[in-house]
Amino acid sequence: MNWKQALEGMNPYKPGRSIEEVTLLYGLKEVVKLASNENPYGCSPSVKEFITSDAIQHEIYPDGYASTLRSKVAAKHGVSEDALLFGNGSDEIIMLIARALLDKGTNTIMATTTFPQYAHNAKIEGAEIRQIPLQDGQHDLDSFVRAIDNETSVVWICNPNNPTGNLIPSDRLKAFLEQVPETVLVVLDEAYFEYITAANHVDSVTWLQSFPNIIILRTFSKAYGLAAFRVGYAIGQPEVITNLNKVRSPFNNNSMGLAVAEQALADQAFIDHCRQVNHEQRQRFTQYAADKNLHIFDSETNFMLIEVPGDADQAAEQLLQQGFIIRSGNALGTPGYVRVTIGTEQQNSDFFAAFDTLLVVEGSAT
Ligand SMILES: Cc1ncc(COP(=O)(O)O)c(C=O)c1O
Description:
Helix content: 25-40%
Largest sheet: 7 strands, mixed
CATH topology of the largest domain: Aspartate Aminotransferase, domain 2
Oligomer: single chain
Number of domains: 2
Strand content: 15-25%
Order of helices and strands: HEHHEHEHEHEHEEEHHHEHEEHEH
CATH superfamily of the largest domain: Type I PLP-dependent aspartate aminotransferase-like (Major domain)
Strand order of the largest sheet: 2-8-7-6-5-3-4
Radius of gyration: 21 Å
Number of helices: 13
Distance between the termini: 58 Å
Structural class: alpha/beta
CATH architecture of the largest domain: 3-Layer(aba) Sandwich
Bound molecules: pyridoxal-5'-phosphate
């Protein structure tokens, strides 16, 4: 068959190990998944109640315009309804952006290391990928500006960045946006927005009028605790949204996903609670790393990138055998580190105990 040439040498997405797989493999009673930055507190109780009700008409197609969720999200952000695009997770929106704007002859700019789906989708579209190394976990925005030329179509900014967790200070990001030509779409991927506690952080939605070439990605998969339902959304200028809608499939969100997202959005007290407890637990990770003399990146998310003694794959395997699924930095482009989702207080205490065993093996326990 005549596959696109760009697919040559590419691999399908390889998910991390599942709880079921690890339970069987090691005969463990309890396995904790701290690998994909889901919400360890689940979702709002009102969502759980809704799921068990009989509220969805299964036989009819979903609302392809996501009308009711759209009006609620628009009201929450103070934007017009035509400034929103809903996707099957923000993953799908990343794909739509690449599909609509990238092609042979264009180039696209992103950090390395960052969320891999930007490069993955750009590659499929045949665009040239320009990767700018992080500096101390931060986007090197000056080098981003230098990399932009007439063929640049899309710039991807993951903020806070996955896998480092670093947040770009708002004044620096704004100064960067002022230097980007209006013909270049700047994607601000804010999947972890709800976890940010940094003082002086400016909500980028307030920049939409001054910078018509930005598009902001948010998701219900992280703090809202709805990863299984696959609902993400983009906020941008109506003209940008209209063009992306041209490449969107008609019923890309299912009815249950749209309905539970609406329920979850209504419970902002749950989100505030999760932000607060996550912040407290984040500080425990920082303290743990300091006590053990390990490097840890500053995170404004619900995950931490922490140094491990020795090889990261081996560390991940040892933690797996103790019932913790985390991500080895080798697979993320950050060898020497593992990325761990911040769990509940108890999960984190147990995780620290498991991590201690890595340090004993290396003879560097303190
Ligand atoms: C930075 C970032 N963007 C986007 C996504 C995709 O999220 P979803 O497709 O579940 O909305 C993730 C998921 O891990 C992420 O970390």
